[in-house]
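Hello forum,

I keep getting stuck at the same step: I have a sequence, I want structure tokens, and every attempt I make locally crashes halfway through. Rather than fight my setup again tonight, could one of you with a working pipeline run this one for me? It's a single chain of 521 residues.
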Amino acid sequence: MLRTENVESAAQRNRDELFRFGTALIFIVGIMLFTIVRTDGGIDGILLVAAAMIGGYMAMNIGANDVANNVGPAVGSHAITLTGAIFIAAFFEAGGAMIAGGDVVGTIKSGIIDPDLVADRDTFIWLMIAALLAAAVWLNFATIVGAPVSTTHSIVGGVLGAGVAAAGWGIADWSVVGQIVASWVISPVLGGLIAAVFLYIIKRTITYKKDVLTAANRMVPVLVAIMAWAFTTYLMLKGVKKIVTVSFPVALLIGLGVAVAVYLILQHFIVRRTAKMENHKGSVNDLFTIPLIFAAALLSFAHGANDVANAVGPLAGINEAIVGGGVIAKASIPLWVMAVGAIGISLGLALYGPKLIRTVGSEITELDKMRAFCIALAAAITVIIASQLGLPVSSTHIAVGGVFGVGFLREYIKSSYARMLDQIREHHINHDPEAVDDFLARFEAADVAMKGEMLRNMKAQAASDRLLGKQERRDLGRVHRVELVKRNLLFRIAAAWIITVPVAATLSAMFFYMIRGMLLP
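Reply #2:
Ran it on my machine without issues. Output:
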């Protein structure tokens, strides 16, 4: 019976995989047929058809890999189902791309190479095709192994590798490369620190209080208002640039206005909600469900507006070069090119996104709604701070760094608490067990301030009567070290981040030489 079930399960997996592959293939073939109709034939027509198909492939890989960072924490915390997250993200990703994706895109991502040093139009087209294909292949591989990586870094590596292959090392702006290397550290550390700080604030001001509902009535509207401020500012700066361009101070003021309105509305709403709840942490956790759903939608919209350029930028550049007959640093985005990016991202998310969504949402560390809220808030705040300071950051690295940040904070808190309990037991080792249990019960029920006071009084009474030596206490700390973050995922993801640019660059250089070899007379 068990063997029959295994066969049926394997057959179902094969059918699901075949469906995904077939749907993706239909999308790519549809792009091919549509582009063929638009071309006049010849080598240029073939190149445009190939570029459009690769652009669609790249867009699907962006959806499969990068979008998981926006909705993963919400899914992992059970604020929304996987199916619901896919629908919300697909809708808002496509909306962000089509509504606010921009009319013009930079063909040389991040200015990493000098387009003036590209020899001619044909070399430029081969360079862009090679860069696009290399980035897409690397993203595909990263998705298969379950590593969320930066799509921006992937396309930057592709452009760098093909550019060096086309015109030598002097074509690259190595200061930009240095900034990208710096972002491997800046992005996750900044995102992790901000997420951990907000989680610590929530714990100190709400969940560590004896009356968590009263604390929630006071703090939850403030926290959600801060989120509204951050996301409104983020969208003003990053998400609606095609619709309206605003300065940073104006964006901040608009965000502040929205935050005040959200705070005033939520005050009464939260009080009514908590009046029907029981006084425990789980009740407070549920108060963050709706903000998390909004955060997933807004992050997806902003991502679609910004990162669609990673898929369609090179394609738009190729299209412009063929139509205009020259090398260009900026290219207009035809509607059909933007549609390829928007549909491809949504399709890739729906077909292949669940794997990375699970990785980010539940496999790195366990997330509840409060932790996921802190990660989403950190993503918006980090991008705002970094953009104003001119620091290079990756939205992928920020989000994943936020997940690791809350996980490591939980490890620290649990390990510290375990050591506190050991100190209490050590101090009461010769006492009546009932007295020990009574002290532990009062310690458990106390808030943070009272816990600290109880420990200080206990240590003051018996500073000279410790039963364990310094080395033994160190050993005790090691025994009670808690691991709530999966180290194997930490190392795998970090390794993938580090090799993204070199691997994409190497692949791109190889593809460039192959394409040039096939097309040179």
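The first helix runs from residue 2 to 38. If your local run keeps crashing, start a new thread with the error log.
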